[in-house]
Amino acid sequence: MYEYTLWHALIGGILIGLASLLATALSGKIPGISGVFGRLLVPATPDKRWRSLFLLGLVGGAALSFLLLDGAAIFRPMRPLAVMATAGLIVGFGTRLGGGCTSGHGVCGVGTGARDSIAATLIFVVVAMVTVLIYNRAVL
Amino acid sequence: MKAGRLSLIFLAGALFGTGLAISGMTDPGRVVGFLDVFGAWDPALLFVMAGAVGVYGLGMLILRRFQNQNLKLPSTASSPIDRRLVIGATIFGIGWGLGGFCPGPSLANLGALRIEALVFVPAMAIGMFLAQRFVGADQ
Predict the structure, then answer these.
(1) CA distance B37 to B24
(2) Which among B6, B18, B101, B133 is the top mutation candidate for probing chain A, defined by the most A β-carbons within 10 Å of its own β-carbon?
(3) Taking all residues of chain B, what is their mean pLDDT, rounded to a whole number?
(4) What are the pLDDT digits (tens) for A66-90?
(5) Which of A95, B9, B48, B127 is deepest in the core (most CB within 10 A)?
């Protein structure tokens, strides 16, 4: 068991940045996860193949890491499943309405200095912090 | 898209999933730890973002100089900061704080068949479908 440090956070982040860069160069699109996934649910989307393969790779790469690196496999469930289902519904709706999530706005948009992505990222981070604060007061 | 390019994009996905797992962002405890600013605050997410944003931003600056027929990069110009963006980001923030999952980590956890992901991801797909069907997807 290796001990998780902030180096793992930084190196993992660098890998996420490299992967996003590679996917941008290959697809010619901003490869935000919510957009890549959401557009797979629209029948008229023409380029479903790379989207599916990118997401399959994501799940496969994570699966392999969980198996091989016990530090990466740490998982602390925080919420009951009913809350997870509600959260999923809200995350799906909000990311498609707002045009991006932590990767599309947070990594790619902020990385290229797009003002809309910087605004969206500030908003969803602050709102999520307030949500955790309220949840902790109300439920825990 | 040609087969070679498609296999490379599969590898890009695998790299993304590996990065998420190594960074600790697949652990909702770590994400909620970052969001819980008045609790035992965990700065890890900030380091993940610094690494990812730095590499992506720098990489795009470099790639821009090599654009050609085979390398077409998307526009990175900002869209207007409108009501849609503000409301969408607010709704996403509520869901993120509620579940400790954003889309990437939720999909990554399918790789371990974790029940939280098996519940979260289908619900997220429904939310995305509803947004795209009734309020229109962003383009």
Answers:
(1) 18
(2) B18
(3) 95
(4) 999 989 999 999 999 999 999 999 9
(5) A95
Which residues of B fall within a CB distance of 8 Å from A28?
Answer: 72-74
Contacts of A70 in chain B (CB under 8 A): none
* CA angle B73–B20–A46, rounded 5-degree value: 40
Residue B112: list chain A partners with CB under 8 A. 62-63, 66, 73, 75
Residue of B nearest to A69 (CA): B22
- Classify residue B71 by its DSSP letter: B
Those residues with Cβ within 8 angstroms of residue A14's Cβ, 6 or more apart along the chain or in another chain: B19, B51, B52, B54, B55
Residues of B in contact with A48 (CB under 8 A): none
Cα–Cα distance, A13 to A2 (Å, whole number): 18
Q: How far is CA A78 from CA B34, B71, B100, B103, in A?
A: 13, 42, 7, 16
Task: Examine the predicted complex and report whether its ipTM is higher than 0.90.
Answer: yes
For residues A4 and A74, is the Cβ–Cβ distance under 8 A? yes
Cβ neighbour number for residue B57 with a 10 Å cutoff: 18
Contact B95 A94 (CB under 8 A): yes
